[in-house]
Design goal:
CATH superfamily of the largest domain: Mitochondrial biogenesis AIM24
Helix content: 10-25%
Largest sheet: 12 strands, mixed
Number of domains: 2
Number of helices: 3
Distance between the termini: 20 Å
CATH class of the largest domain: Alpha Beta
Shape: globular
Radius of gyration: 20 Å
Order of helices and strands: EEEHEEEEEEEEEEHEEH
CATH architecture of the largest domain: 4-Layer Sandwich
Pfam family, one: AIM24
InterPro entries: AIM24, AIM24_sf, Trp_RNA-bd_attenuator-like_dom
CATH topology of the largest domain: Double-stranded beta-helix
Structural class: mainly beta
Protein name: AIM24 family protein
């Protein structure tokens, strides 16, 4: 005898926890910052405002400091449950306690306004400062490692409470006949064997379990499309949980 899928409703959805490895339920009672396109369903009375929305000026002035990414984010306001997902990638929540964490911009899905978001000096990354919860996606499970360490840039999700990384190039990897082939063909030229990020000092580094970056897509607007494979994976994972 086979059992049917779990069917969720507002009373049974997890509170600020995973629905499954690929979806996360935020119990909203107030406001959260949310990357566009990452909310796949919600229950309750929730509205979504652009970052430039006038009544939210005081919130923005204390919690959002990234002009480059302002068009990618909204503020969710109200009461209810939001289900967050990102094309069937792994999704997890993390808690900062008076911390300082820098994360790849495309991986950060949402965060509580008790955290302040700032634009990192490293292109493509954002920094969260303070105490509170945030939700991030990754291509495979995330592992925490301690410096000193050198990591493949494509496996890097972020780093916490440690200095920004330096670039490290293995010039020996590009020397000789094989090095010439790599320069001409590009084979192996962009791998972690040639170029790494080097971390030193105290703190933790967050690594995903693959060297393949998540494909960063802009928020879907009317008239735009997303790859069919991505859309089917996202809808299929959610549908199995909601019983559709």
């Amino acid at each position: 005898m086979t059992t049917g899928p779990v069917v969720w409703d507002p009373s049974t959805l997890p509170t600020d926890d995973n629905v499954n490895p690929y979806a996360f339920s935020v119990a909203l009672n107030g406001r959260w910052f949310l990357q566009k396109g990452k909310m796949v369903a919600y229950y309750g009375n929730i509205t979504f405002h652009p970052i430039g929305y006038g009544p939210l000026d005081s919130l923005i002035s204390t919690s959002f400091h990234s002009p480059t990414h302002v068009g990618d984010w909204v503020v969710a306001e109200g009461q209810g449950h939001m289900i967050l997902a990102d094309r069937a990638y792994d999704v997890n929540s993390y808690d900062l306690e008076q911390g300082n964490l820098t994360v790849r911009a495309g991986n950060l899905l949402a965060f509580a306004p008790t955290l302040a978001l700032k634009q990192s000096i490293i292109p493509g990354f954002l920094t969260l400062i303070g105490s509170g919860k945030f939700v991030a996606a990754s291509n495979g499970p995330v592992h925490f490692v301690e410096p000193p360490i050198r990591v493949d840039p494509q496996a890097l999700v972020g780093w916490a409470d440690c200095p920004s990384p330096c670039h490290h190039y293995d010039h020996a990897y590009m020397r000789g006949v094989l090095g010439g082939v790599r320069r001409l063909t590009g084979i192996g030229g962009a791998s972690g064997e040639e170029h790494q990020y080097e971390f030193v000092g105290a703190g933790q580094v967050l690594l995903q379990s693959t060297e393949v970056l998540m494909n960063e897509l802009v928020a879907v607007e009317p008239g735009h499309t997303v790859p069919a494979q991505s859309a089917q994976a996202n809808l299929g994972a959610l549908g199995r949980q909601l019983g559709f």
